[in-house]
Amino acid sequence: MMVRLPNFNGHEKKSVAVVLAVMLLVVGVALGGLPVAKATPAESPSPPPPASAAPEPVEPPKPTLDDGRGGEAAFAHKVATWQETLDHATTRLARGNLSEADYEELRVALTEVFDQARLANGQGAEQVATTRQMIDALGKPPGEGEPPESENVAVERAHLGEALTRFDGRMRQSSLIATRADIVLRTANERRLNQFTETLFRTGPSPFLAKTWDHIPDQLHFTRDRIAIALAKTQKADLAWRSYEIKAVILSLLTTVMGLAAYRWLRPRWGRREAELTPSYRRRVYAALIDAIPAALVPTLVITLVTLIALSALSQILFVTTLKAGIKAVAIGLAFLLVGRGLVSATLAVRHPAWRLLPISDQSARSLAKRTTVVAMVLAVAIAVLAFIDLALVAPELHAVAGFGARVIGAAALFLLLPKRFWQPVPAATEPAEPGVETPMETPMATGSALPSPLVSVNLRLRLLTGIAAAAVVVLSALRFHNLSQYIAQLLLAGVAVLGVLRLLHGVGHELIEVFVTQPTGRLAQFRSTLFHTERGLRTFVYLAKTTLDLLWLATSFVILLPLSGIDWSELRGWGTTFMRGVTIGEITIAPMDILASLFLVSTVMVVTRFIQRKLDEGVLPRLQVDRGVRHSIRTGVGYIGALIAILLGIGALGLNLSNLAMIAGALSVGIGFGLQAVVGNFVAGLILLIERPIKVGDWIVVGDKDGVVKRISVRATEIQTFQRASVIIPNSDLISHAVLNWTHKDKLGRIDIPVSIDHNNDVELVRRLLLACARADARVVREPPPMVVFRKIGAGSLDFELRCFVADVEVYTPVSSDLRFAILHTFRDNGIRMPSEERIVHVPQLDRFVPDHGGPAPAS
């Protein structure tokens, strides 16, 4: 059985867009998975030459710079075609009175001319650049008094000169065509916008004047007669009504069976489950969409199919526009009623509070559910009336009165849903959290949690905005701005529907980010730990991901709602193309697309570089048993190479000329030489440190009075951490130009020197044996080189010795020195070794001066 699709004209296509949207979506999804084979012309290879035929000598072709598309004749034909299209568009714009379809046709033709001319201009610029390079390869022509160049070189120079002139002319012609096409395109857009504005603010009859109501009875009778005549023609028409009825019944049954089968298959998997008391926001969205299948989607598809079949049958009958408008209006009203009521019921979930999407109380949900049915019916009637008077092209007076009445009842229905008592938030949980236990973060729509204050304010603003828009629709219609009133009403309904759906998807996106962050185990957790090694990096990712999601939500809302406001998709694409194409200033073009591409390449290369560095640090270099300093040098070198590659790719994506950059760098070198000497010196010194490696990460160095371990060698300075855990930043040039004491340059073997002084009456041999015994008793002291005791000095009051021993790791210098001193002191005391005690004689002259005088006799001398 063949199903014949209806033939719509442009006005009918625009009028039934709301009805066809759901059907086209389902058909598109269904057809999206079917393989489509594209027929390609077969290429027949040329037969090979016979083997016996000797190859003839062929003269090598001269280098040609033609574009291979017909040369000058083909380009001249293109230019003539472009000029003709531009002249035709200019004439039509000068004539005026263009429809939306005419403007769309002009935009498509002008955009095509502009793109082709821009492409030809780019090809011409490349050909000019190539020709100039070839001319430069021939060198300068001989001057006066110089020997002439060879004939072949002169011929090639002349040929290249002619080609350069030809390609330069093509480039300039195509640039002129592109500029003119852009001017005509902007003129068309400006006139279309002016025409749209004039239509939008055009006034009609007032619904309050008596003279307007005087024409209403006659116009109602006329509209009724048109419907009656259309019905009579339909009954008398010789059409196979039976076949259309069979098609409608079969397609309706098939749609119903398939929808219910899909519902029965999806509900056990992703539908509501009574046992699941705290479902996630994502699960609640899935369940609401699944519940909307039998309540909204299937009936809407059935109505759409029946409407399309009826319109297909009526398209064969002339002068039945009013009847078709009535069918479309009824279908639009029923579709709105079913979709709105089904989605609201699935969203409120009166009988399943845990699965509710809106964060409102049970009482508010029940109240809204009762009122939603009445409001949906009233709005469906109002939308059907407005659609009928718009599609049936009724008289202005009847259009004004009927439209005003429909808008009044529609606004009144919306006001029934705006009171605050219907939007009471979920009461907050009163159970206090346990001390020391962090409360887990909930999604904004989590069941059992109070509505956050930002959402409360957003809820209030949305209700206020809806009320203002509904009141503006009625007021503007009363002031005779019927087109503007209709425009605001359409934007209001479309905005509520689009933003509601996008808000659900936005919440699902936020919850998926939270799942990625909080998943404790599994592959997702392993992937997260591979990407982010620190909590700071993970927090940064969460912030950037949520910000990107919010921006994507705003951009999607803008892209969807902007065409509904009267701006066509092609015009929107033109604006986007113009913006991405950028602005040309002199010979430099600033293009956002090139900037985005450059940023993407730079970011990608830097991310790959960081990944390679992390893999080298964690996997490759530790297995090779490379010390920490070499690992740091390799890691830093890989970072420098990655940064250099990223900069070169970014410059290439921006389309900058490296010769110009060389000139800029030469000009900046003067400023660098005077103002940035220290910075450049430190950078070069840092490169020397990384390559020569006199100092590396992990070394224990002494620079002046600074003593510590090298933690990081960067481009400008080196970071040293002292043993008091303080960081000291030393310029790299100081480490190159001044003396540096490096305790661990070659190895970590270090010597400990402990001076010891004893009394003259002690046995020096016993002291020597005791000192060596203390050194050998410590396991951290190496056996080779062996410890030794040096007799350094025979003083007036003491004998001075020095114990010298080595440790394998100089980093334990301080604890080993301390432990050895403890051991020596205890050993000397146990063996009676006396330390020298210094005798100090203090002379206090004229002591009698400090004796107080009490009036008694003076002391005897």
Please describe what this structure looks like:
64% of the residues lie in helices and 7% in strands. The protein is an alpha+beta fold and 861 residues long. The strands form 3 sheets. The protein has a 5-stranded antiparallel beta sheet. A 3-stranded antiparallel beta sheet has the order 8-10-9, covered by helices on one side. Strand 5 and strand 6 form a beta hairpin. The N and C termini lie far apart (150 Å).
Could you name the key traits of this structure?
alpha+beta, five-stranded antiparallel sheet, three-stranded antiparallel sheet, 64% helix, disordered N terminus
If you compute it from the alpha carbons, what radius of gyration comes out, rounded to the nearest whole angstrom? Answer: 45 Å
Shape: flat
Largest sheet, spatial ordering of strands: 6-5-4-3-7
Total count of helical runs of at least 4 residues: 24
- The structural class is alpha+beta
Mean pLDDT: 78
Helical amount: 55-70%
The number of E-state strands comes to 10
Q: Identify low-pLDDT runs.
A: 1-70, 429-455
Beta-strand percent range? 5-15%
Largest sheet: 5 strands, antiparallel
| C-alpha termini separation | 150 Å
